[in-house]
Design brief:
This protein is α/β, with parallel strands linked by helices. About 35% of the residues lie in helices and about 15% in strands. α16 links the parallel β10 and β11. The structure holds thiamine diphosphate and magnesium ion (MG).
């Protein structure tokens, strides 16, 4: 509530030296008061970050406001009682932060009388979580046994001598005085006045029991008030008998599932949920409530812990299917290599029993890499929202589960949070659930994070955080309801922090006493949450012991029967674990592609002309574009007139035509709208009207598919993961992620290594994502030069030593794990983009894209190369003078990408157009063995050279060489012309760059260079 919009008064400007620090120092010197050191009780480090809204400049601002208010209350804007509350809180917190002398709070004479009670209220709701009973083990305090913050008063405290002067001058005799309640509180219910004793007790009930609420950093008054009323209203946390019995039944399932697995497969790893069994009712509550609010599809991502339990009891995967995963003798039926059981995903549509509505639940498959699935889930959610026109996230939502250590430690969590409110990336609120078992493998939080809570990262997006003792299932259910309502109301992220413990080691085979002896002594004594809750309900009379035991027996029987059935399973079907099924019309019934032919990717002359016209015009009225852009568009129009395309226009033709044909296109990445190299300009900006833009690509045809082009946040891991998830939702979309420079993909390495490269093999799901990676050695230094083709090539699943026997154009594509191209012409780039959609299956496509070629006068394509009947060329043979007398050709230089232009220039300069042939391998993977063979056969007297501009240990050499050798049946050696091996991808010295270039060109054209080499 410190936002300017709520305080539209003018503050006295703060002169430069009057920073918060210098002011407070001056005042400290003046009063010479002793300072109190604040020791937060429940945090592992003594941090003041618990109130980040009073950090830095905001504390400065508040301090100014405080003094203005002291001088004259009318000088500050009043929002009901808020100002008083705010100022009192500020004063106290500033004292605690050592920014104000201790005595300052007592200067606050305006807070006497009926208003004085507002201060304890404020402090309690800000910091009640410090004293709430969050830890089922009760050992957090034992880890860091600091005293409770002394300005938090609980009903156990005496307001006597030792507290006098610290608690606003109040003492025991004030406890029965009656105070008027401010309008901003809900603790009174229908009462407007209450005795102080009652006020303290009610605040305790609201904020200091099993739930600790962190929300005061949210700078929106309405949202804060919304949360307050959810926790302050007397009696708000009451449940019907029906609700309690359902909760107990869910706890029974959650607990007995793990016990069943433990009984049957005691030596198998399963990452059981023991110690956090209330996760299952937590998720089910969120799902029920969201279904009530109209949600039809929920996409979930989660780590290992409790995953099988979630599959069984939340997603409702058939138990026998889960149990047969434990049978080590079953063989897999599908293609692909599969994954371990606690990584598999699942998709299921069913009726929600509480709402009687359809709900689709999917749990995304994920790798071991914790949190990597977060952005993928968000992307898939966004796509589902997009395709069903759910612009506000009312029908589709995501739930992300986290471990405490991973949530705090993994940067991708932060990257994902930062996508949460961006127009092209928001999923309109994610519910995060943290299984906070207070340990990460063997490491305890004191050494695993610097923040007080593992959830502090969520504060960057002002997400409210509900810490809850997971041994209190009703409190868990309550906060989950509030979280789901929050999401439905505000469409923003929210965090539920289930403070729990881990009954076993990291996995069932692990001995936790090696490293956490005291914690585990306590855990051994700990009564299970199901038993505790059942006893509570039996004592209350909500269920009888017999009913409870029957519920257990019923579920055990279900498990036993499923186990018996699972023994009938003879084979494992990975397909049954698909998390993102595509429409059946995309495949044949057996999941195979509808055809194995490759249609032409060309267009008619008319289509090329029409898209070219759109690309060179501004299709709306009264829109002023930048003069430089006018020149670019004129240049495009001239090219269209001459029937040629440069790189940007080739891309335009591909996108424009696919859109016209009904394929949605989404291009995302840093600065993609204009293009890092200022060549693309897909979004035009009116030079006179702020924020007025025009996307000509959306003006191609009346019934075209929409084009989404979006500059992303400055993240690779998060954004690439997001786009991968987006591409999962539908086969009928071309989803492209462009790196600013190709080398930046390595900060998203996990998405590439764990999802894109092996995704289909592990999880039998196809994905057609396209990575555009600017690449090329242009003297720009070690960074920005190489997109590291060697890494992508090394991960191709093709056998370099076997000449494929099947047809090449399609079958080879179908069998590979991804397609890697480095196109040298705009036409070929155009074709490969169109092929990505027109081919009858989906594969990831990696494109090394050029930089200098974007404007290279020779890197242009004629419309003829893009007309109907034309195709992507996997290899572009030499079509020059060498064709006339192939026998006279002494050398064939194979290359890929931009170096082709350097080679042709050098060949011309040397007058060797008749003696050296140059062939471009445009599709590196799968390798065009057949077309390479045509070339090597064509020039029987030529030696074979691979030329690349990259260093020898990088680029393509190690990949291409064995394949070239296989092609010629190892009858001819393959020579190398290129830079020598190096640690860095490129030199930082331009002169050295040019020397290196000339040196390898010399080698490439020196016909004696390899004489004598074996
Ligand atoms: C990115 C990544 N780094 C390391 C690991 C190895 N690892 C597996 S589980 C684990 C501890 C996770 O702790 P937490 O997130 O608290 O989850 P918990 O196991 O306690 O449920 C670690 C370090 C991993 N899986 N992923
Ligand atoms: Mg943990």
């Amino acid at each position: 509530f410190l936002a300017d919009s709520y305080l539209p008064f003018r503050l006295r400007p703060i002169a430069a030296p009057q920073t918060a620090k210098s002011q407070s120092q001056a005042r400290l010197a003046a009063v010479g008061g002793a300072l109190r050191t604040f020791q937060p009780m429940r945090s592992y480090t003594a941090s003041v970050s618990a109130e980040p809204f009073l950090n830095g400049t905001s504390s400065n601002y508040v301090e100014e406001m405080y003094y203005a208010w002291l001088e004259n209350p009318r000088s500050v804007h009043k929002v009901g009682d808020c100002v008083c509350v705010c100022v009192c809180v500020c004063a106290r917190v500033l004292v605690r932060m050592e920014l104000l002398p201790r005595t300052m709070a007592s200067l606050c004479s305006k807070c006497s009388g009926t208003r004085v009670m507002q201060t304890p209220r404020s402090i309690t709701f800000i910091r009640g979580h410090h004293v709430a009973q969050l830890d089922p083990l009760g050992i957090m305090a034992a880890i860091d046994p600091g005293p409770p913050p002394s300005d938090i008063i609980t009903s156990n405290d005496k307001l006597g001598e030792e507290r006098r002067g610290r608690f606003y001058g109040l003492d025991e005799s004030d406890l029965d005085k009656v105070f008027r309640l401010p309008t901003t509180t809900f603790i009174g219910g229908s009462e407007s006045t209450l005795p102080l004793r009652e006020i303290i007790q009610r605040l305790e009930m609201a904020y200091c029991q099993s739930i600790g609420v962190e929300f005061m950093f949210i700078n929106d008054l309405e949202q804060c008030q919304w949360i307050r009323q959810k926790f302050e209203r007397p009696g708000i946390m009451q449940f019907t008998l029906e609700e309690k019995r359902t909760l107990l039944a869910r706890m029974v399932r959650s607990t007995r599932f793990e016990e069943f697995l433990q009984r049957k497969w005691s030596s198998e790893k399963r990452f059981g949920l023991e110690g956090c069994e209330s996760l299952i009712p937590a998720l089910k509550t969120i799902i029920d409530k969201s279904s009530m609010n109209g949600v039809e599809s929920i996409i979930m991502g989660m780590p290992h812990r409790g995953r099988l339990n979630v599959l069984a009891n939340v997603i409702r995967k058939e138990l026998d299917q889960i149990f047969c995963q434990f049978d080590s003798k079953l063989e897999a039926a599908d293609e692909g290599s599969g994954d371990v059981k606690y990584h598999l995903g699942m998709w299921h549509r069913r009726i929600n029993r509480v709402t009687d509505r359809n709900i689709t639940l999917s749990l995304m498959a994920n790798p071991s890499h914790l949190e990597a699935v977060d952005p993928v889930v968000q992307g898939k959610t966004k796509a589902e929202q997009f395709y069903c026109g759910d612009t506000e996230g009312n029908r589709v939502m995501s739930i992300l589960l986290h471990g405490d250590a991973a949530f705090a430690g993994q940067g991708v969590v932060y990257e994902t949070f930062h996508l949460s409110d961006l127009p092209s990336y928001t999923t309109h609120g994610t519910i995060h659930v943290v299984v906070n078992n207070q340990i990460g493998f063997t490491t305890d939080p004191r050494v695993a994070r610097s923040s007080s809570y593992p959830t502090d990262v969520a504060k960057v997006v002002n997400a409210p955080i509900f810490h809850v003792n997971a041994d209190d299932p009703e409190a868990v259910m309550y906060v989950c309801n509030v979280a789901a309502e929050w999401r439905a109301t505000f469409h923003k992220d929210v965090v539920v922090d289930l403070v729990c413990y881990r009954r076993n080691g990291h996995n069932e085979m692990d001995e936790p006493m090696f490293t956490q002896p005291l914690m585990y002594k306590q855990i051994k004594k700990q009564k299970g949450v199901l038993q505790k809750y059942a006893e509570k309900l039996i004592a209350e009379g909500a269920v009888t012991r017999q009913e409870y035991e029957e519920e257990i027996a019923k579920y055990d029987k279900i498990c036993e029967e499923a186990h018996t059935r699972s023994k009938d399973e003879k084979i494992l079907h990975i397909k049954h674990w698909l998390d993102s099924p595509w429409p059946v019309c995309f495949f044949k019934m057996d999941g195979q592609p509808k055809s194995m032919t490759s249609p032409s990717t060309g267009l008619t002359e008319e289509e090329l002309g029409h898209i070219g016209h759109i690309a060179s015009s501004v299709p709306v009225e009264d829109f002023t574009i930048h003069g430089g852009l006018s020149r670019i568009l004129k240049g495009r129009a001239a090219m269209v007139g001459q029937r040629v395309c440069d790189w940007a226009l080739g891309e335009y033709m591909a996108f424009g035509s696919l859109l016209k044909e009904g394929t949605h296109i989404r291009l995302s990445g840093q600065d993609v709208e204009r293009g890092t190299f200022s060549h693309r300009h897909h979004v035009l900006h009116d030079q006179n009207v702020d924020k007025r833009i025009c996307i000509p690509m959306n003006h191609i045809a009346p019934n075209q598919a929409p084009y989404t082009v979006c500059n992303s946040s400055l993240s690779e891991y998060g954004v690439l993961g997001f786009e991968l998830g987006f591409a999962m939702a539908s086969p009928n979309a071309l989803v492209l992620w462009e790196a600013q420079f190709g080398d930046f993909h390595n900060t998203a390495q996990c998405i590439i290594d764990q999802f894109i490269c092996p995704g289909q093999a592990k999880w039998v799901r196809q994905n057609g994502i396209v990575l555009l990676l600017p690449h090329g050695m242009e003297g720009m230094g070690p960074e920005h030069s190489s997109a590291r083709p060697e890494r992508f090539l090394q991960m191709c699943n093709e056998d370099p030593d076997a000449y494929p026997v099947s047809e090449f154009a399609v079958r080879q594509l179908y069998d590979c794990n991804w397609i890697i191209v480095n196109c040298s012409t705009p036409a070929n780039y155009f074709h490969v983009l169109r092929r990505q959609i027109l081919q009858p299956f989906r594969k990831p496509l990696i494109v090394f894209t050029p930089k200098s070629l974007l404007r290279h006068p020779d890197a242009k394509s004629n419309f003829d190369d893009m007309l109907t009947g034309t195709h992507f060329q996997r290899l572009i043979p030499d079509s020059g003078p060498v064709c006339e007398k192939p026998d006279g050709v002494k050398r064939i230089v194979f290359c890929t990408g931009k170096v082709y232009y350097e080679l042709t220039r050098e060949r011309k300069n040397r007058g060797m157009d008749n003696t050296v042939a140059i062939a471009r391998i445009e599709q590196l993977s799968p390798f065009p063995f057949d077309q390479v063979k045509v070339e090597t056969d064509r020039y029987p007297n030529a030696d074979l050279v691979w030329c690349q501009e990259e260093h020898k240990n990088q680029g393509y050499y190690d990949y291409v060489k064995p394949r070239l050798r296989t092609t010629v049946d190892r009858t001819r050696p393959v020579r190398y012309a290129g830079r020598g091996p190096a640690a860095a991808p490129a030199t930082g010295n331009k002169a050295a760059h040019l020397v290196e270039l000339q040196r390898f060109l010399d080698t490439a054209f020196n016909l004696d260079a390899f004489t004598g080499q074996s």
